[in-house]
Amino acid sequence: RTFGFMRDVEKNTGVKIHYNERMEEIRKTDRGFIVKTSRGTYETRAVLLTMGRGGTPRKLGVPGEELPKVVYRLIDPSQYALQRVLVVGGGDAALEAACAIAAEPGATVTLSYRGEAFNRVKEKNRRNLKEAESAGRLKTILHSNVKEIKPHAVVLEAGGRLAEIPNDAVIVCAGGVLPTEFLKKIGIEVETKYGTT
User: Fold this and answer.
1) Which residue in 100, 159, 188, 194 has its CB near the most CB atoms, within 10 A?
2) Cα angle at 149 between 144 and 153, to 5 degrees?
3) Can you give the pTM of this predicted structure?
């Protein structure tokens, strides 16, 4: 859906979008900026940074995370019908993803969170989680960490024990990492308040 929307905007406005191209450097010049990417260099008068609140998705740093079955946000819950899915995280995005997938026919969902409770989530998401758990559509494992991701399983550590769980897909909802050093390097001031950027 999002991709289709972007294609429509591109077609209707004439804006030129370079897909699958990562911005690596911005340099100020007398006439504007030079933007270096993974595929080329562009000269422009202005730069608009639109990276969202999350920045780059936070990774787990475990073996197997590079497998194609691992993603960092939920796009379409229906693609997980009839699959065994692990959702990792303890915020609203994780609970919403887990509950949405649990509503799909034949989906088996496990929600793994390293904390002891979902303290910072909306009450609506907490209720939806309890409902999905009560209906047997979703299993929550608190105090757990992913140790390894295999092609057809995941290894979780919980309570000092390792458990291998059959698995078809992993969705990591562990927040994002802002590119603070990069932003400072290109001249943007980054202010930290109350321990968060």
Assistant:
1) 100
2) 90
3) 0.71
Distances in whole angstroms, Cα of residue 28 to Cα of each of 31, 32, 105, 190 = 8, 6, 53, 18
| Structural tokens at position 187 | 């001249």
Residues 6+ apart with CB under 8 A from 159: 143
| Calpha distance 118→92 (Å, rounded) | 9
Query: DSSP secondary structure string, 57-87?
Result: EPP---TTTTSTTEESS-S-GGGGTT-EEEE
Q: Are strands 169-172 and 84-88 parallel, antiparallel or unpaired?
A: parallel
Report CA dihedral (183, 70, 99, 2) to the nearest 10 degrees. Answer: 60
Q: Dig out the tokens for 131 from the structure.
A: 């409902």
Locate 40 and state its tokens: 């080329």
Rounded Cα–Cα distance for residues 139 and 121 (Å): 18
